[in-house]
Structures are given as C-alpha cells and as structure tokens.
Amino acid sequence: MKRWIFYLIVFLQILFLSLMSISFYVMDAMGETIKLKTAPVDPRDPFYGDYVALSYEVEQIPEEQWAVEKELERGDRVFLLLESNNEGVYELVEASKIWKEAEENQTVLRARYLWHDEMNKTYQVDIGLNRYYVEENTGEYYEERIGESVVEIVIAPWGHKKIASLEEAAE
Fold first, then answer.
1. Alpha helix (H) ranges present in 31-152?
2. How do residues 55-113 score in pLDDT, each as one tens digit?
3. Are 111 and 81 spatial neighbours (Cβ–Cβ below 8 Å)?
4. Mind listing the pLDDT tens digit for each residue in 6-39?
5. Nearest partner of 81 among 67, 69, 95, judged by Cα
6. End-to-end CA gap in the chain
7. What rounded mean pLDDT belongs to the chain?
8. Is the pLDDT of residue 40 over 60?
C-alpha cells in the first residue's frame, strides 16, 4: 500500500521537472517574439560572470498612458499593452490593472508595479528580464559598442517570457 504512494511521488517529481525544462523549448516554438529598446550597463556577477543589466523604455510609463484607477502597492501585477512600430520594435500603448485583448501587431506583457515618480510624472514597473548573461570577458564589448540596444523577447502563450537575443540598435 505504501509502496505505490512512494512511486507516485517520485513519478510526479520527475514529471514536474520534465515539464519545467520542456516548457522553455516549447516557448520557442509556440511563443510570440517581440523586440524592446533598452539602455544597457555592464556589471559583473561573481557566480555567473559577465552580464548586461537592462532597463526597458516600456518600464517607465508616462501618466497619460497609465490606465489604473486606484493606487497600487509595490509588487502588484499590471499589464502592458504593446504595439509594433515601423521598425518592428514594440512600444507602450497603455498600462492597466486589467488584461486587455491585443489586436493585430499588439501583445500584452505582464509586469510588476514598483513606484510612482510624481516629479517626472511617470510610473515605474519591472517586466522581470533585467539581466542578460554574456560570454566571459565580453561585457566591455557590450558596454562600449551597443549603447542603446534592442532585445528580442519570446512570450509563451501561458505568460512566461525569456530573452532570446540582444542586438545593436539600428541608427
């Protein structure tokens, strides 16, 4: 009797780990790919090596694009409605507490509310993709040559997102 419970628990653990690892590969096949503009800097992590810290333009939301009626607490979920421009880079249309249905050339990105900057009349959110790890000793290359860059992000149908690539912005 107890033996089948043990096997069930082991099976469920293996199933969970398998699904978790497969989900990132399925994301490439089924996910939507978007591009966002960034402003990178070059810090270093002692455990993971060089990485580029990324800050996205869509994370700073002007008050006129903020469609949230009540005051939010730090960490509350918000939804960013993004639309593709002529260069294929997605720009913010509206930030809301409610999921908006995306039309053609639009997508919705989940983010976390951080704070409201009353002086600059902007809201700060975090989309959760602020580190991109690069090969050892290549951080300076990104710092010197990239300046503003474009990040290609894959968004899975179930909401997870990951950075696919980091490219130099077209002038």
1. 139-145
2. 888 888 998 999 888 888 899 999 999 998 888 889 999 999 988 888 888 899 999 99
3. no
4. 999 999 999 999 988 888 788 888 888 887 776 5
5. 95
6. 68
7. 82
8. no
- Residue with the two structure tokens 């730090």: 74
Rounded-to-integer distance, Cα 42 and Cα 44, Å: 7
DSSP run (H or E) holding 153: strand 149-155
Q: Name the amino acid, one letter, at 40.
A: P
What pTM does this model have?
A: 0.70
Residue 13: φ, ψ to 5°: -65, -45
Going across the sheet that includes 122-126, the strands are: 60-62, 122-126, 106-117, 77-84, 90-96
24's enclosing H/E stretch is: helix 2-30
DSSP 74-134: TT-EEEEEEEE-TTS-EEEEEEESSPPPP-TTEEEEEEEEEEEETTTTEEEEE-S--EEE-
The whole-angstrom separation of Cα 46 and Cα 9 is: 36
